[in-house]
Amino acid sequence: MDLKKTEAPVNTTTIDKNLVDAPTDNIYEAISIISKRATQINTEIKKELLEKLDEFATYTDSLDEIFENKEQIEVSKFYERLPKPQALAVQEWLEDKIYFRNTKSNLD
Which SMART domains match (predicted)? Predict the structure, then answer.
């Protein structure tokens, strides 16, 4: 997932309910799918951030050696400015980029 190219809003926006539930005809099912995708996105972002911050980690017990690392601060600021995982998931949902299937309808 390329976080730099996303068009998801950083601020809260109102979305037409009919657009959200159109693919499933059920708002609760749509929100459940979006929620699961948001959890996946959050996990990916957290893993990526921890990998990048691990490069700056120092494993010393001395408090005298603590210093500001400008690159580490910039990485942290970048991730703070990103849209929330929920906004990213909703954007993916509206752009029809999330694959989902209803297993109950296949059993009938």
Answer: RNA_pol_Rpb6
Measured distance CA(1)–CA(95) in Å, rounded: 14
For the chain, the straight-line distance linking the first and the last C-alpha, in angstroms and rounded, comes to 35
Residues 92 and 98 sit within 8 Å (Cβ to Cβ): yes
Distance CA 95, CA 76 (A): 28
Tell me the whole-structure pTM to 2 decimals.
0.81
CA 47, CA 50: separation in Å to the nearest integer? 5
What DSSP character marks residue 64?
Answer: G
Q: Which long-range contacts (CB under 8 A, 24 or more apart) does 74-77 make?
A: 75/49
Instruction: Give yes or no for a contact between 90 and 34, defined as CB atoms under 8 angstroms apart.
Output: yes
pLDDT tens track for 40-50: 999 999 999 99
